[in-house]
Design brief:
With about 800 residues, the protein is of the alpha+beta class. The chain has 25 helices and 22 strands. About 45% of the residues are buried.
Length: about 800
């Protein structure tokens, strides 16, 4: 221990004597360690950190679907049967999401709510912040409420006496029975939770086709996920035989809740972690090169110590202690970089990444940073330690310039080739994602988002109990919006494009068909007459909805091109009749509907997802109380918000506008995860390229210093300065070409892992690889030119007089 202490103090003295070298090495390590730690912080917080529930590994989310396409939506009777009859679950609970208007607490507000059955909170196993959670006895009552901690803080000022207070939601009184813990954010981070009441009608066999509730379950002790899925499969097969019209071909299974929450972002985060580890490796290679150059000046010291009895192991330990000292300083700087980078990542990250807002550095992250620092210290310190201590004592003492010899030069060149190869891998990955993002940005979504404002309006059932009341209110409001100065046209829709929270669909039958499990299905939207004009969705055949498509007119629908291609191939769908399987509004006609128009396809699930078949229903025939309003303006859409609020307040002051955003934000949000991943990988690639270029520069600068006499001799016997420049630039380009060749092989293999993240770009895209090769070549030329130019300016006489 005393020997190690002496080595450590000696290492610190050496580093203080060379502040320039120390600053560059520590800064390089801090950048690499900090970036790696920041990305690991996000990966740890999103993917690795367990959910804040009791024994989260045993909490499952129930899945259900056909033809390999699984969703989290169950029909109530299917949910009841699969949970009760499979005999593998200790507890289960159903949930659904909705939005409500809260009044009586200042301005009316739109809240996101979760409706849950009685065992929901006990299944998750998290205690309340105040009061209690919902219980089975609350379900029959239906008028109790649990607030989220966020809503309690924001709206009620953390009142300690909130339990027992009454809150009005959609005009109905709810008694607050508790405040949830801050960690309670499922499902969908709601503002509050209220009871989910499944009526006898909901649970009847006639409702097996209505998939609208989610299901959670906790495994019994000793039961595995595979056993649970097997038991659920047996129940699904039995239900398929009993109810073939709705359940034939339907699979039922479960997955761990955490796996489901992170499934879409997992590949991107793991890819970024791999990329940043490559950056860290390049940083280590650069520091190893710096240490090799530094060892050039210490070869006589090493030789003298070896001559007086220091063994090779003792010398290697000294070098490694110096590396650890550098690594420790780099770790301290890296933690500071990581703290700032983590905050930037959380701020810039898309809201769709689960638990991103809760990401922070903790003990596990700091342990990771220390482990990375130790590992990198050994990595970049071992190469110069082995190379330098391998030289003989006599060579070190008698060497005219204290050179580390040909072996050291070969190692430095090899390290630079490795840097170049790693940089190629990162550049190729970033280039592929950039090309993919450019392609995706150019996709036509099927509508025009420019100058369109969107917001949500929902009418409380207590105040608007009939379809007629709902229709009159919403129609009057949309008409007022159309009369606001600066508004070109306004419309309302149930199911806005690119709204990830909307997934309504329906089965339907065509003329002469029976309703079976194989009946065609399509997405379902309800729109007011000017909807297609407001979003500039083109008409392909027939006509749009008009004033004649009202509650007493013939029932009609409009379909999109994909529905026409898929379900009426080679024929004209105009005039054909269909009968849909879902009734949106109680008491409204649901007979055969005539197709009167075909409109262009619109991207709904995302710009990279093909447009599904869609059926549009006229609002005047299907008046629902929950709509998104779209307003096309001639100027800034945001300037219309005050007038839109005032128009609604004139009709009903207790109905709020919510979720106000321009339509262009929805388009941007649909690409947010791709943009986030691309920009991070591009940043890593730029850092890697910069470090690789510095590596080339460092090697050539070292070589120029070693070959000063040779350069002077060449110039003295007639070589032109240009010849010297070409000589050294050729050496730099050679290193780059070798690194490029090795890196392209690695890039092709790595690009296959990116295939799922690419859009209309092949993993071996030739344009990307040509651009990568060109960028790397230019960087190598630029890095080679400075030392090559310096070599050409060597004074021959001064060089020849050097010992």
């Amino acid at each position: 221990m005393r020997s190690f202490s002496l080595d450590f103090r000696y290492a610190l003295r050496l580093l203080r004597r060379q502040p320039g070298f120390t600053a560059v090495a520590v800064a390089t390590l801090a950048l690499g360690i900090g970036a790696t730690t920041a990305v690991f912080t996000v990966v740890n917080g999103v993917l690795l950190r367990p959910l804040p529930y009791n024994d989260p590994e045993r909490i499952l989310l129930l899945l259900n679907g056909r033809n390999g396409r699984l969703s989290t939506s169950y029909s109530p009777p299917n949910y009841r049967d699969v949970t009760e009859q499979s005999s593998v679950f200790a507890e289960w609970a159903a949930f659904d999401g909705s939005s409500v208007n809260m009044t009586g607490q200042g301005d009316p507000q739109r809240l996101q709510t979760a409706e849950v059955t009685g065992h929901f909170f006990s299944l998750l196993g998290v205690g309340p912040r105040l009061g209690r959670y919902l219980q089975d006895s609350d379900i029959a009552n239906g008028q109790t409420l649990v607030l989220s901690e966020r809503l309690w803080r924001r709206q009620f000022g953390e009142r300690p006496d909130i339990v027992g207070a009454v809150v009005h939601l959609d005009g109905k009184p709810y008694e607050v029975v508790g405040v949830a813990a801050a960690d309670m954010t499922f499902p969908g981070d709601p503002d509050c939770w209220r009871p989910l009441m499944l009526t006898p009608k909901d649970l009847s066999d006639r409702s097996r086709g209505a998939q609208w509730i989610g299901g959670l379950a906790r495994l019994k002790p000793g039961v595995t996920l595979a056993q649970a899925n097997s038991a659920m499969g047996i129940v699904a097969e039995r239900l398929a035989r009993q109810f073939p019209n709705t359940n034939e071909g339907r699979s039922m299974s479960a997955t761990r809740l955490q796996e489901r929450l992170v499934r879409t972002i997992r590949p991107a985060l793991l890819m970024l972690l791999g990329a940043v580890l490559l950056v860290l490796l390049i940083a280590c290679v650069n520091v190893a090169n710096l240490l090799l150059a530094r060892a050039h000046a210490r070869s006589r010291e090493v030789a003298v110590r070896a001559a007086v009895g220091a063994g090779r192991g003792r010398l290697i330990r000294q070098f490694l202690v110096e590396s650890v000292a550098l690594g420790g300083a780099g770790a301290i700087g890296g933690i500071a970089v990581a703290w700032m980078a983590t905050r930037a990542l959380v701020a810039a990250g898309p809201a769709s990444i689960p638990r991103l807002a809760d990401v922070a550095m903790d003990t596990s992250v700091l342990t990771f940073a220390v482990a990375i620092a130790l590992a990198t210290s050994l990595l970049f310190g071992l190469v110069p330690a082995l190379t330098t201590t391998g030289a003989s004592a006599s060579h070190g003492i008698m060497g005219s310039r204290g050179s580390v010899g040909p072996a050291g030069s070969r190692v430095r060149r090899t390290l630079v080739i490795c840097e170049m190869a790693l940089a190629v891998v990162l550049l190729a990955g970033a280039g592929l994602l950039l090309r993919s993002y450019q392609r995706l940005s150019g996709v036509n979504p099927g509508f025009s988002a420019d100058h369109v404002l969107t917001f949500h309006v929902a009418l409380p059932e207590t105040k608007y109990p009939t379809a007629t009341a709902v229709h009159d209110m919403m129609s009057a409001y949309v008409e007022r919006l159309n009369n606001i100065p600066g508004v070109d046209t306004a419309a309302a829709v149930f199911g806005l494009p690119l709204d990830s929270d909307f997934n309504a669909s329906t089965s339907f039958t065509r003329n002469g068909e029976a309703d079976t499990a194989d009946s065609p299905s399509a997405g379902m939207r309800v729109v007011t007459p000017r909807y297609f004009a407001t979003l500039k969705i083109p008409l392909r055949a027939g006509r749009m909805f008009d004033a004649h498509d009202d509650s007493v007119g013939p029932e009609v629908v409009v379909i999109n091109e994909e529905a026409a291609r898929r379900y009426w191939p080679g024929t004209n769908p105009i005039g054909q009749q269909i009968k849909i399987g879902v009734s949106l509004v109680s008491g409204v006609r649901s007979g055969a509907k005539t197709i009167v128009g075909v409109v262009g396809d619109v991207k709904y699930g995302g710009l990279d997802i093909a447009a599904p078949p869609e059926i549009f229903l006229p609002y005047d025939q299907h008046p629902i109380d929950n709509l998104t309003v779209a307003v096309r303006t001639s100027g800034d859409p945001a300037a219309t918000v005050p007038a839109a609020r005032a128009a609604l307040a004139e009709l009903d002051r207790e109905v709020p506008l919510s979720d106000i955003k321009p339509m262009s934000d929805l388009v941007s949000r649909s690409m947010a995860e791709r943009r986030f991943t691309m920009l991070l990988l591009l940043s890593f690639a730029v850092v890697a390229l910069t470090l690789a270029a510095i590596g080339v520069y460092g090697v050539l600068a070292y070589v120029v210093g070693q070959r000063t006499q040779e350069i002077g001799l060449r110039l003295a016997i007639g070589a032109a300065p240009g010849d010297v420049v070409r000589l050294f630039m050729r050496e730099g380009v050679t290193l780059a070409v070798i690194g490029l060749g090795v890196g392209l092989l690695g890039a092709v293999a790595a690009a296959r892992a990116l295939a799922s993240m690419l859009y209309e770009v092949g993993s071996a895209d030739p344009v990307t690889f040509v651009v990568v090769a060109s960028v790397l070549g230019l960087a190598a030329l630029a890095a080679s030119y400075v030392p090559a130019r310096r070599a050409a300016r060597v004074d021959p006489m001064e060089a020849l007089r050097t010992e």
